[in-house]
């Protein structure tokens, strides 16, 4: 089942259709962004607004607004007012893009008013189809760069593939793949490859494979909500999830399933969940999943995931992580696979069971130090660490 975006009626927005100036967003103050999201005033010059019903809006769908952006390095901003938008989004542009969702509560992802949704899952067992066809949002410079591929290594990305967007930002938008209310094949809300991007106060909802961070993908999530059941944080690249809520809709596989990628340089590709909360999605499911949910399983031996300073409710498996044995072969490899916690706490953290299980690494302060900030783990395509200029530190630091 290959997908054609469904263009359903959307709710209204104001619109300005003049060109955005190249420095508009990066110099926009936090207070201005918030006013823009609340009132559609004081937005960056040239902000494009989207609506199916408001006569002042030039574009009726979010994708049509994205397609209208010039193929250059100028900074572009799209503002979406309240509404549910049933469509798939595909972003290949390299120049900075920010997508703002209208909201009265810009610091609370649970009160988002903009929902981008699609209902589809990859149920193909032959390897012909790829998960990327079914995601609500795909950000990657090319189709080949966005493909997951099969097996423990996935598809090779052509050597001449450019790096994509270096500063992609989204605020207060929910991405919901509501194909089924249970695990029924990969149904991604987000697929993000070969790009740098920040998601602030956003929501990501699915059951299987909710968020995929592909090869050379660097993704930062701040005060967002991520909901899933099976392997719902997976990929090849690097994800840093800060001060967010991870909602367990059930227990299948694990929260994380990462594939390391062989490169010519040492890397720290993996998923880092920091200062966050992991809990059953609701009180009705909590008794059914108590003590059953794994923090992750290794998609290949180079899996790396760390839960640091994170609260875990009673849903978490006493041993923490689990093995992944395929065709009689355990994908966990001592000294290479890193499935770890640092100062995790809450009713789901059982130190004795973690040690006895022998698969969960309990890091010391010195062991965690090399992974302790985004600058220490995010890398460019040459393997250089330290470029985190694309993260909205003004929002994160509240200045």
UniProtKB/TrEMBL annotation:
Organism of provenance: Penicillium frequentans
Transmembrane regions listed in the UniProt entry: none
Span of domain Pectinesterase catalytic: 166-373
EC number: 3.1.1.11
Pfam families from the UniProt entry: Pectinesterase
Keywords: Aspartyl esterase, Hydrolase, Signal
Protein origin, superkingdom: Eukaryota
Signal peptide range: 1-22
GO biological process: cell wall modification; pectin catabolic process
Molecular function terms from GO: pectinesterase activity
Lineage: Eukaryota, Fungi, Dikarya, Ascomycota, Pezizomycotina
Top EC class, one word: hydrolase
Pathway(s) per entry: Glycan metabolism; pectin degradation; 2-dehydro-3-deoxy-D-gluconate from pectin: step 1/5
SUPFAM superfamilies: Pectin lyase-like
InterPro entries assigned: Pectin_lyas_fold, Pectin_lyase_fold/virulence, Pectinesterase_cat
Name of the molecule in the record: pectinesterase
Family the UniProt entry places it in: Belongs to the pectinesterase family.
């Amino acid at each position: 089942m290959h997908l054609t975006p469904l263009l359903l009626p959307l709710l209204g927005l104001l619109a300005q259709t003049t060109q955005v100036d190249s420095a508009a967003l990066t110099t926009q103050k936090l207070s201005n962004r918030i006013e823009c999201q609340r009132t559609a005033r004081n937005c960056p010059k040239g902000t494009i607004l989207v609506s199916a019903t408001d006569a002042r809006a030039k574009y009726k769908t979010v994708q049509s607004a994205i397609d209208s952006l010039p193929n250059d390095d100028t900074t572009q901003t799209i503002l979406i007012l309240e509404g549910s938008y049933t469509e798939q989004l595909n972003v290949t542009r390299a120049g900075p893009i920010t997508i703002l969702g209208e909201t009265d509560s810009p610091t609370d992802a649970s009160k988002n008013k903009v929902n981008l949704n699609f209902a589809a899952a990859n149920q193909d067992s032959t390897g012909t189809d790829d998960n990327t066809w079914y995601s609500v949002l795909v950000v990657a410079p090319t189709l080949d760069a966005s493909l997951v591929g099969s097996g423990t290594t996935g598809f090779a990305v052509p050597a001449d593939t450019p790096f994509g967007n270096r500063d992609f930002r989204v605020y207060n938008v929910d991405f919901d793949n509501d194909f089924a209310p249970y695990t029924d094949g990969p149904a991604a809300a987000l697929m993000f490859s070969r790009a740098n991007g920040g998601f602030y106060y956003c929501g990501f909802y699915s059951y299987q494979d909710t968020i995929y961070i592909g090869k050379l993908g660097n993704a930062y999530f701040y005060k967002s909500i991520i909901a899933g059941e099976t392997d719902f944080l997976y990929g090849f690249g690097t994800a840093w999830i800060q001060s967010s809520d991870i909602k367990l809709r059930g227990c299948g596989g694990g929260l994380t399933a990462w594939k390391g990628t062989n490169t010519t340089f040492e890397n720290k590709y993996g998923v880092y969940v920091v200062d966050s909360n992991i809990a059953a999605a609701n009180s009705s499911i909590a008794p059914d999943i108590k003590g059953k949910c794994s923090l992750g399983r290794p998609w290949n031996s180079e899996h790396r995931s760390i839960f640091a300073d994170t609260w875990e409710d009673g849903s978490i498996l006493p041993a923490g992580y689990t093995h992944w044995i395929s065709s009689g072969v355990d994908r966990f490899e001592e000294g290479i696979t890193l499935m770890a916690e640092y100062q995790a706490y809450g009713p789901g953290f059982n130190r004795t069971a973690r040690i006895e299980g022998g698969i969960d690494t309990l890091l010391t302060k010195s062991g965690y130090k090399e992974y302790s900030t985004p600058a220490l783990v995010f890398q460019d395509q040459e393997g250089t660490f330290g470029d985190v200029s694309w993260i909205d530190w003004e929002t994160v630091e509240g200045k």
